[in-house]
Every structure is written in structure tokens, then in C-alpha cells.
Amino acid sequence: xxxxxxFWRRLRENWGFQYGVIRSAVDWTVALYxxxxxxxxxxxxxxxxxxxxxxxxxxxxxxxxxxxxxxxxLGGGIRLFVEEADQLFLTQRARWIRGVxxxxxxxxxxxxxLHGALAVALLAPLLSVHGLSPMQFVLLGGLxxxxxxxxxxxxxxxxxxxxxxxxxxxxxxxxxxxxxxFLTGAVVLAGVPPxxxxxxxxxxxxxxxxxxxxxxxxxxxxxxxxxxxxxLASAKWTFLHDAAQERTKRLRLxxxxxxxxxxxxxxxxxxxxxxxxxxxxxxxxxxxxxxxLAEMGVKSFARDRLQIWTYIRLVFVGxxxxxxxxxxxxxxxxxxxxxxxxxxTRSYWKQMMKSPYLQMFPWRDADKHAAAGKALYVxxxxxxxxxxLAAGFGAGAWLGALAAILAGWAAAYAIAHLFAPW
Length: 422
Known about the structure:
mainly alpha
């Protein structure tokens, strides 16, 4: 047995495990009647759009494709193929642990490169509309893959070294830094106008200079990735964290398959005091049954870190989506996202009302309905205001933004009372 043979054995076991998970959800009947026809239809449309792009695709700005590639570049992970039981043997032999980790990092780099190439290939019909050359396709794929690998390594180092608010601050800085670098290379250095008819403060470079700088950015990302990977392969104090992360990555597909059929208990927060509403002060002046129940729902939502982060992500993605669509579709997209946000907060309210603690009290249906409308209004108001700001500013500058903020307030009030369950 050698480090190479151990790595290949674990890699085959991983592929076999992932294949078994997929087989448990997709049998021959599902593959024959759903998967294969869907792939055939998608393949037919892909080839037809690659030859003759539809008219609606020409109205999609180039920055929309760059934003999609940015999501791919920021969504990577690291596989090191270490296990908790290895601390009995591998941690005592530096050559073995370094050999398994280094091969896992090479495997991760190859996977990230394939992800970048696949993402660019899937967006080829949209990218071809904007006149990208074959060399620009290659550079864009290389930039996506190298940024994905470097971002995954940086995220792994942050999760190893930092904790608490420092980890979240460093993760936010990491996302901002790699987003700025990637958009600079994919938009400015590619020489393609990001918006039709809308100039940017920094003019896109055209010709060979942009391609040379883009290649230099890829080389810089690869060099930084090699340096971080070398340090990670030799680190000893990160073993337990690496093993926990590897187990999470290995079981990620299985957890996704079982998420809808198993009941999971929410994790208890390690924070001694919540980030929001630390003091139990009343939110409403009048102390009534409706206000008490609504206040309980708002504080329960705000003190749940997972719900807050999901809320921020939904609003952020919706804000970006509204800015990317044409002005004529911005109000419709904003309203659809507000309805989606209302549906999600309504599901949280219904789940909260089913808790054993609230089931102990004989709530009246009228009080529950009124409290749900008030709580949903408070929860929906910040998101609807931001979505309205994006829709109004994109359609009519500052005057449209002010009018859209009023529309967002009205939409939050209407959706909250419309979706309030009895």
C-alpha cells in the first residue's frame, strides 16, 4: 500500500457511493421516461440556438452571462480524501498525509477546470451572440476554472483559521475580492460591452492587450492556488477540520436527496446571545394577543441565523436579477420575487405555529390570522423595499426609484395580508 494506491481506492469508493445515491433516485423507469427525453430536448435546443440564436437571446446583456459564470466561480469546494480514522496512522507519517492531500488537491483542480469549461460551453449560445472569439471562449473558461479553484482554497483556509464574526467578515471580503477580480477579467478585459447602450466608467479593452492581461490574471490565480495548495497539503493542525469537511462534501448529494423525506432538528446556535433583538424589548406599543404573537414570530425569525442568511441571499440574488433584465420586465420580475419572498416567509410562519410551545395555547383563528399578517409585513418590508428600489432605479433612475419604493411598501402590505394563513 502506498499513498497513491490509497487515494485511488478512496476515489473509486467515492464514485461508487455517489453512483449508488443517484441510482437510488433515478432508476431505469425515471431515466427512460424523464431523464433521456429531457436531455434530448435540451440537446436539440442547444444545438439549434448555437446555430441560430433566437431573438430574445439578443436582448440579454453580456453581464448576465458574466454573472452566471461568477456564481460558478464562487461555488467550489476542496476534496482532500482524508478520514477521521487516519489520525491513528496517516498523521504519524507526513509523507502519507501529504501524498493523499496533494492528490486530492490535484483532483479538485481538475474538477474545477472542467466545471469552468462546462459552464462556458453551456453558455456558448448566449456568448456567441455577443461576438466572442474562440480564444476568448478558452480564456473565459480558464478564468472561471482558476478563479473557482483559488476561491475554494481561500474559503477552506478561512474556515480553518477563523471563527465567529471574523470568519463571516473574511468570507465576505473573499467574495467581494474574487467577484471584483473575476468581473474585471470577464467583462473589462474581454472587450465586450456589458450593457447594450450603457457605457461603464472603465472602458472595456479590445484586441490583444485585453487577452494578454486576461491570461496574466489566470496565471496569477494559478500561482496563488499552487502556493495555498502546497501549504494546505503539508499542514498538520487542520486534520480534524479537513476530515469533517471531507465527510460533508462526500455526503452532500445524499443529504440533498434525503432533505425532503427526513425530518431534521435545527442546530442550536453556539452564540450565547443572538445577533438581533438581544434584549427582550417589545416591538409594538400595545400589548395585545395579536401583537404578542406577531412579535414572537418576528423575533424568532430574526434570531435564527440560517433564516437571516437565506433572506439576505434571496434579496441579493433578486436585486441582481432585476438589474440584469430589460427595463420593460423589471416590475414583473420584482413582483414575482416579492411573491416568492412572501411564500417563503409564510412557510416559516406556518412551521413556527406548529411548534410544541405554541400548540400549548388556545389561539383564536382571527388572532392567528391578524398576527400572521402583521409579522409577515414586518419581515417582507425590507426585502420589498430593496427589490422596488432595484426595479424603479433600472426603469426610471432616481424618480422611478422613489416611486418604486412606495410600490414596494404597498406590495409588502398586500402580500403579507394576502398570504397570512388562518
